[in-house]
């Protein structure tokens, strides 16, 4: 039997299908776009057209509830319902916190602390010895400290988001950015550019401001300051952020092979463990 997990984020959507042993047999990603539910259903159409079958879906991310309703009400439904399982049972939801905890535990069984920075929020999660969530802190009320903040700042400085971290690491000096509000920070960056400040130094200063916010969340949830950090979400692909967090906290930062897939992977594993 196979089981699917979908993580509907603000910028991207990830789908992972695992078998009953928890091995990944399929993974797909798409931009969220203006209609995330339609994009999500397209991903499952691709999976089904490839001949891969699955028994149940677990949805996570900010669009999870809308997806659960939309998928359950599909007519005709792509999954037939066994006598002991209604179509409503075929799709359920789990919080991003639990999904990331389960996905990380599968990659790093001894993980104690997770930092997840996505497009619209950031999370610090402390785990028990059994991989269950012990404590967490979440920033979902402001773009500051998220991937969206870095994306806007990269565009303001004329860097692609893929090159932003690389260019920041080349800065010769640190430069302080005083504002973490996205609107005010963008204005401050524009002013610094007008004064002739080095773009790379501005970029590093912006990364440092995000790092400090993330480090504060981590220190408030973890009990052992020597614990390594598992970094997930799209921002985990930013080498400057990984380096700065490691230096600030004085510990190793572990990044999964595909950090954006961890939420969907964890959701799929939880689905497979429901029996």
Describe the structure in your own words:
- By secondary structure, the protein is an alpha/beta fold.
- It folds into two domains: 2-97 and 262-272, Nucleotidyltransferase, domain 5; 110-255, 2-Layer Sandwich (Nucleotidyltransferase, domain 5).
- The chain has nine helices and ten strands.
- It has a five-stranded mixed beta sheet. A five-stranded mixed beta sheet has the order 8-7-6-9-10.
- A hairpin with a 4-residue loop joins strand 6 (113-117) and strand 7.
- Helix 4 (147-157) packs parallel to helix 6 (182-194) and helix 5 (161-169) crosses helix 7.
- The longest helix is centred in the last third of the chain and has 23 residues, at 199-221.
- The protein is globular, with a radius of gyration of 20 Å.
- The model is unreliable at 81-88 (pLDDT under 50).
List the helices and strands and how they pair.
Blueprint: E1 2-8, E2 12-19, E3 24-31, H1 36-49, E4 56-61, H2 64-72, E5 91-93, H3 96-107, E6 113-117, E7 122-127, E8 133-139, H4 147-157, H5 161-169, H6 182-194, H7 199-221, E9 229-232, H8 239-249, E10 253-254, H9 262-272
Parallel strand pairs: 1-4, 4-5, 6-9, 9-10
Antiparallel strand pairs: 1-2, 2-3, 6-7, 7-8
* Strand content bin: 15-25%
Oligomer description: single chain
Examine the secondary-structure arrangement and name the CATH architecture of the largest domain. Answer: 2-Layer Sandwich
* Most strands sheet: 5 strands, mixed
- The rounded distance between the terminal residues' Cα atoms is 11 Å
> Remind me, CATH topology of the largest domain?
Nucleotidyltransferase, domain 5
Percent of residues in helices: 40-55%
CATH class of the largest domain: Alpha Beta
Widest β-sheet, arrangement of strands: 3-2-1-4-5
Alpha-carbon Rg, integer: 20 Å
> Which structural class matches the secondary elements?
alpha/beta
Number of helices: 9
User: What low-confidence regions span 5 or more consecutive residues with pLDDT below 50?
Assistant: 81-88
| Count of the separate structural domains | 2
Instruction: Output mean pLDDT.
Output: 90
């Amino acid at each position: 039997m196979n089981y699917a997990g979908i993580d509907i984020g603000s910028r991207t959507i990830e789908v992972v299908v695992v078998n009953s042993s928890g091995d990944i047999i399929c993974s797909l990603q798409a931009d969220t776009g203006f209609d995330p539910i339609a994009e999500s259903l397209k991903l499952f159409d691709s999976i089904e057209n490839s001949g891969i079958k699955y028994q149940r879906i677990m949805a996570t991310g900010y669009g999870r509830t809308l997806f659960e309703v939309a998928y359950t009400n599909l007519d005709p439904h792509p999954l037939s319902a066994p006598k002991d399982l209604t179509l409503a049972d075929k799709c359920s939801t789990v919080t991003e916190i639990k999904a990331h905890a389960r996905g990380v535990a599968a990659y790093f069984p001894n993980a104690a602390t997770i930092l997840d920075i996505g497009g619209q929020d950031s999370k610090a999660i402390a785990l028990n010895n059994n991989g269950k969530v012990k404590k967490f802190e979440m920033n979902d009320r402001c773009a500051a400290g998220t991937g969206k903040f870095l994306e806007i700042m990269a565009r303001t400085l004329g860097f692609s988001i893929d090159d932003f971290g690389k260019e920041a690491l080349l800065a010769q000096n640190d430069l302080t950015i005083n504002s973490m509000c996205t609107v005010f920070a963008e204005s401050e960056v524009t002013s610094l550019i007008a004064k002739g400040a080095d773009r790379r130094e501005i970029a590093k200063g912006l990364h440092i401001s995000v790092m400090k916010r993330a480090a504060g969340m981590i220190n408030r949830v973890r009990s052992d300051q020597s614990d390594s950090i598992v970094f997930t979400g799209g921002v985990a692909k930013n080498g400057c952020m990984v380096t700065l967090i490691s230096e600030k906290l004085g510990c190793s930062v572990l990044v999964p092979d595909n950090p954006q897939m961890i939420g969907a992977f964890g959701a799929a594993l939880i689905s497979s463990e429901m029996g």
